[in-house]
Fold these 3 entries.
Entry 1:
Amino acid sequence: MVNFHLQTLKLGLILVWLCGFILISISFYATTQILPSSSSMKEHINNLTSSTRPTVTIFTAVRPFSGSIGRKQTLAIRSWLGLSQDIRVVLFSKDPSVFSFAGSFGYGSRVSVEPTIDFTFLGTPFFHSMVARAQASNSDISVLMDSETILLPDFFSTLSYVHKLDHDWLFIASSRNVSDFPFHLDVDGKHWLGDNNKMVKMEKLQEFLSNGKWEHCDDKKTIIAWNNGELPLHNGVLPPFLYGKGFHTLWMINEALSSNFRFVFDASWTISSFFINNIYNNATIEARNWENVGNSHLGAFYGSLFFHEDHYNYSNLIKLFKCDKHYHFGSTIDDIVYPLGVFRSSKHTKLSTCFDKLKPKGNTGCSTKNQLMSLEPISLPFSLELLLSTRADQNKTIVLAVAGYSYKDMLMSWVCRLHLLNVSNFVVCALDDEIYDFSILQGLPVFRDKLAPNNISYDDCHFGTNCFQRVTKVKSRVVLEILKLGYNLLMSDVDVYWFKNPLPLLTTFGPAVFLAQSDEYKITGPINLPRRLNSGFYYAHSDNSTIAALEKVVKHASLSNLSEQPSFYDTLCGVNGSNRLGDDMCHEPETNLTIRFLDRNLFPNGAYQDLWDLNNVSSTCMKKGCFVLHNNWISGRQKKLERQVSSGLWEYDISMRMCLQTWQRSKSISYF
Ligand SMILES: *[C@@H]1O[C@H](CO)[C@@H](O)[C@H](O)[C@H]1NC(C)=O
Ligand SMILES: *[C@@H]1O[C@H](CO)[C@@H](O)[C@H](O)[C@H]1NC(C)=O
Ligand SMILES: *[C@@H]1O[C@H](CO)[C@@H](O)[C@H](O)[C@H]1NC(C)=O
Ligand SMILES: *[C@@H]1O[C@H](CO)[C@@H](O)[C@H](O)[C@H]1NC(C)=O
Ligand SMILES: *[C@@H]1O[C@H](CO)[C@@H](O)[C@H](O)[C@H]1NC(C)=O
Ligand SMILES: *[C@@H]1O[C@H](CO)[C@@H](O)[C@H](O)[C@H]1NC(C)=O
Ligand SMILES: *[C@@H]1O[C@H](CO)[C@@H](O)[C@H](O)[C@H]1NC(C)=O
Ligand SMILES: *[C@@H]1O[C@H](CO)[C@@H](O)[C@H](O)[C@H]1NC(C)=O
Ligand SMILES: *[C@@H]1O[C@H](CO)[C@@H](O)[C@H](O)[C@H]1NC(C)=O
Ligand SMILES: *[C@@H]1O[C@H](CO)[C@@H](O)[C@H](O)[C@H]1NC(C)=O
Ligand SMILES: *[C@@H]1O[C@H](CO)[C@@H](O)[C@H](O)[C@H]1NC(C)=O
Ligand SMILES: *[C@@H]1O[C@H](CO)[C@@H](O)[C@H](O)[C@H]1NC(C)=O
């Protein structure tokens, strides 16, 4: 059981996300600035230019389609598609039921699934990754909304209106929470029908909805929409919020207001959106996988971390409203309707009546403070045993990465690469608290090695140093522990780039065979010479021979003042290679373990054939049929990182804190 201490974590994270954190604090106190300050922005508010109908893509994270959740999502999505032929829907999910739902609309339909955004290992999508994907949309307008929220036609009329604004904009719209909605959608998804299948008028629907309560406290129920224009949404870097956890929408609005790039407003009064709130039945509780224990603790934690302990609400935003069939903007705080101008008094009276209806009666906001206060302390239940049992593949095999904080970007690039290769049976062993916290925030299956030395997060913890020796000795102990729990294991340093999944090959050698990368740099000759075993990439089968041999290695390493790498060779192949067998094997007689050195054309080390010096490493390695390429035989963390980034064998966007996605890749780099 790894116990997680909020306070320690907070401190660490403040450092990790320092930039974002400062922005939050600043924007908090900058929100009194509520109007677009640049005068040009104000002028542009009612300067309508474009007259074409906008193309719209609605992005939504969906839960698996089953039970009442499935039905609610289906109804909501049908209501969106019925609004206009110009609306497309992108579903964020990796679940097979979502693919079949999208498939049911037929080939070339307006519904598609996007499984390549970042998810935690428990399947929760990351909000920052969803936003990035939505920003890459080629439609005029991107919308992010909850998958159970139903829309009425005034949604599309509002978008058609704001599409004509001559300034980039961003709006939110709150939804209503109704306990019952006695109408059903017709086959086309265009009309709502009442009892005797008679069409129900829009006015009647709206009247019915006006009894529903605004939902202000559930951040994910707020619709966000923006035009895909020139200006960024905001100046900040979105923290890796889990979708539906914490106040990500508030965060974005705060940032957008303080960045002052776009015209930010609240369109709740011109958009009829609602969700039906009734009790979930038992069958669907399983499907609500975002709500499982580990995740909800994490989510609560995100909320507290990335938001100031104060309250904020949307009542300060400029509001879009409709009066006498015309749209207007107004600020209820300043009692101003835009554009500023003289109205004929009759018109003015009417407008004031409309405007007065916007003024909040009673409490319209939601105190984030109250919600944050009620959070329980976090205790993450990710023990090694639990992680292994949920992550191992059907061969009971685990891929293990061991990393310290100074290798965090390398770790992420490695993880992103494994995601691309659909390899999901990996776990991460954190060598220090910083990398543990970082990995938790990035949604990785991570455990903390309790025996690891505490201070290893140094830039100079590289090959040959004291630090390096201590770190590498941790690895074999963890490996031994995992083998003893009955799991086969592929140990891969995070500086090993994977071209394709080597497990199908490595698992064919069977028990009592230990497979390791050779560090031999000469092109020809034996590859099993003394000290040529690289302990940064090896496969160990969980059996008596291997466990007994690894026990000897760990013991040897504990007595040696060198790193553990020589202990592997000296123990398994004998000092001076006395246990060598042919040119690429050893046999350890006491444990009857066979050691095979992997073919260097398939598993090249960093020196072999100077592969890293080629101007197209990737294509050469692909032609050779490489499974992996080790970024070793280079000194210094920085140089190593540069070499990997510059050769294009890099999969992580450091500044955005998310995997490089297919939609972000430059077309010049080839991936396969
Ligand atoms: C309104 O838009 C038109 C066309 O883009 C532009 O020529 C005009 O200058 C704009 N007016 C203002 C006040 O910005
Ligand atoms: C909707 O309202 C009901 C009753 O007021 C409340 O119990 C429920 O939590 C609300 N739903 C959401 C998603 O906030
Ligand atoms: C729902 O679950 C509860 C507890 O898990 C159980 O007691 C109850 O019988 C279930 N109800 C139905 C209708 O399955
Ligand atoms: C919402 O903001 C307004 C204006 O800042 C404030 O008066 C009100 O108390 C806030 N509501 C809540 C619930 O925090
Ligand atoms: C990973 O899975 C996706 C979806 O199932 C598939 O399109 C893709 O080709 C797979 N990639 C690899 C490398 O197997
Ligand atoms: C931890 O680091 C400090 C400062 O670099 C060093 O003096 C100390 O010996 C280290 N502790 C261990 C257990 O190695
Ligand atoms: C599981 O092991 C078998 C051989 O024992 C191998 O053919 C198969 O590819 C392995 N599966 C994976 C996912 O590695
Ligand atoms: C492995 O060792 C255990 C106990 O040490 C023993 O019970 C078991 O039979 C051994 N298995 C094999 C395949 O030798
Ligand atoms: C390592 O140990 C050997 C003896 O086992 C000793 O000769 C050598 O000086 C030690 N090296 C260091 C750096 O302590
Ligand atoms: C290994 O070789 C060195 C020199 O070649 C020799 O001095 C040493 O005794 C040898 N050790 C063993 C255990 O064979
Ligand atoms: C050692 O392993 C080989 C197969 O790897 C097996 O044929 C042999 O019987 C084993 N010898 C002993 C003593 O267990
Ligand atoms: C590397 O080679 C591949 C395939 O030949 C090619 O598509 C790609 O553009 C090359 N990349 C660079 C950086 O030259």
Note: Confidence is low (pLDDT under 50) at residues 1-39, 282-311, 372-379, 666-672.
Entry 2:
Amino acid sequence: MSRIAHEMRHEFADAAWQERHAVTRVDQLREWMGVDTDGSLMRDIQLGLARAPMAMRITPYLLNLIDWSNFLQDPIRKQFIPVGSEILPSHPLLKMDSLHERESSPVDGLVHRYQDKALLLATDRCPVYCRFCTRSYSVGLDTQSVSKKRASPFQMRWDTILAYLRATPVIVDVVVSGGDCFRLKPSRLLAVGMGLLSIPSIRRIRFATKGLAVLPMKVTSDHEWTDALVNISDAGRNQGVEISFHTHFNHPGEITDYTIAAAELLFKRGIRMRNQSVLLAGVNDDPEVMKQLVKKLSDLDVQPYYVYTCDLVDGIEHMRCSVRLACQIEKALRGITAGYNTPLFVVDTPGGGGKRDVHSFEHYDRQTGLAVYQAPSVRPDQLFTYPDPLQSLSPDAQAAWLDPQRAKRILSDAVEAARVKSMAV
Ligand SMILES: *Cc1c(COP(=O)(O)O)cnc(C)c1O
Ligand code: SF4
């Protein structure tokens, strides 16, 4: 079946059809691919999947947005379908679970890193799997390179999580993430939302999902699911608790008529929406692309909230951007539209320091590409480093990083420089 035929089908607007036809194997891509006469593209994808920590899962809706005549450069393809020929060696500072989420989990399925807010991992499934995902240690299926730490069954975890939240009234803000709440059944979504609303100390609840960006027809076709979300939002409003919906668009090309219809529906039904993007090379590492994204999101009544620099994840070094580039793009954006629709660019610091404004480094050496951050509200006694991607550095600096002795010195010099600077303030 051709792509046009797919689009014409009534089923295309049905989320259940999209989920049933999600592509998880390379051979299923063949019908979308057009000519690949010598099979080289197929082999390249197979090589990419063998090297990547995430399993593949992509909806027909997204496959239809890819420009297959320009497959390698396509910004949507890059986020979901790896090719072996683009993968670069990872930065030596990389470790799996670089955000140390597992260390900050007081109970299974809850990350409590910041004082008054916590992150709830409600599922390990997503409607799609993103190459650059931070949680590649737990979401998705096992791959050839990673065997995932499975979360225990939800019902077992849920009572423990609620008990912890009830006993920890300092937590007023809960992010429901995962995985992705688009993969929660309406009854489960409702149970999570109402369960959290039954705890008087919780003042704000966010549902984080990639769904609006990759499966917008869920909102317009899965009425039971959307009603569950709206019921939670209405119940929250009635008791003075803010319920919000956090989406994840990375490129203006991800916003279609389906997205507009879904966002309009949510807006009309009183759902507050915000967006968190990831800064990705070849996807949105361009001020013009980012400006379009911000404008389009604003028109959807989705507030651009954050742009994250890419976490240190194995197999995606080619997608990371430098701190310098993040600062430049932020500078280009600020002032183009309402300040409240201008995203803050943040680094989620490896080692568990939490999110820091990308500009707020204590020290940044553009030669070695190492930025050093403080996180007074999270771990005041520690310094946190974020490395620019190796390919953004000079050949000499790259060689230095690959030599363990010199790499150690780069780290200790940067930390020392940051200490001196922060003491002088
Ligand atoms: C991002 C995050 C939050 C929410 O942080 P905000 O800056 O308020 O968006 C909460 N907990 C964890 C562990 C997080 O990573
Ligand atoms: S949807 Fe979110 S949690 Fe799921 S793979 Fe993508 S970035 Fe990771």
Note: DSSP finds 16 helices and twelve strands in the chain.
Entry 3:
Amino acid sequence: MTKGQFPIGKLNNIQTPFYYYDSELLRETLRVINNEAKKHEGFCVHYAIKANANPKILRIIREAGLGADCVSGGEIEACIKTGFPSSKIVYAGVGKSDWEINLGLDNDIFCFNVESIPELEVINQLAAAKGKVARVAFRLNPNVGAHTHANITTGLAENKFGIDMHDMLRVIEEASVMTNVKVVGLHFHIGSQILDMGDFEALCNRVNELQLELERHRIVVEHINVGGGLGIDYQHPNRVPIPDFKLYFDTYAKKLKLRPGQTLHFELGRSVVAQCGTLFTRTLYIKKGKIKQFCIVDAGFTDLIRPALYQAYHKIENISSDEPAETYDVVGPICESTDVFAKQIDLNCCHRGDLLAIRSAGAYGEIMASQYNCRRLPQGHMSDEI
Ligand SMILES: *Cc1c(COP(=O)(O)O)cnc(C)c1O
């Protein structure tokens, strides 16, 4: 077990539970993303803010030059505050309220990813009231399944997201008679934690078909946006700290046929930030039941909800102990039976006070924290600032 990577002395002085972010790993991940993306002409990478909006994380990502992908007005505000150029902000979501659309218009964002005709009509009206023309892309539902957890597939006909791809020409037609919107792209996003490149290839094939159909009607859009979804290795955070961005971008370069001058946009969330984050929690009690023993820790699903929400696996290590392993259920203090981080896992023998590392928690961790049970929100600390 690798424990040397964590500065245990320093970590022991911080109030638990807390998130710890390895800034060096985040910067290295961003270097790899930029290096691999720039090998392909027209590739533009946005960071999906919803994965982690910690201001320090956002600053590092902005410094690396990525654009931003927002799904709410609050996220647009967070981006503007961090200094992301508004010309690199895209905004998706099935339920954009008027103030959120107005915020996007006031900031002249790159593009609204529109998910329905009623939404398009409202954007057109609000843009008209400001004497502006909103740049829009249609989020199409490609009916491509992703081989991932059912709660995080988004590209199937049964999901609430996007516009049925068969309606593509009709919605573009409708938009063409509106004076205050301009259709500049097509947008897709099929799901999250996708590790099978075949799923992305299926999306590429679908995009190619749709582009041919557009061409038959002499329509060429400025850009294609294929969303995010690249997965990470939750089993092996040490062995695979950086996802295979080369394979990911090469897959799109090989399979998706861009038209001359067209740009290809990506919205990566999890794959950018997941591996740099660890949730540290302290062991409160070891409770021996009749058939199992529980390691009761001071973090709960209010700090990291993924195991409770998606039955997600996170590798857990006891970084305070080298004693022989024993088997535990690792559980939190919250009054819900789902407040369990792991069942029947082996940890070096745990004692009260031991610090446990819950790995690969940089994405959909801190940002999903809640105050249920009037708990305090966990704080995030950067490795180069503690
Ligand atoms: C959540 C989301 C993303 C990011 O997904 P990851 O799996 O974290 O890469 C990208 N685009 C849209 C529209 C999303 O909703």
Note: The radius of gyration is 22 Å.
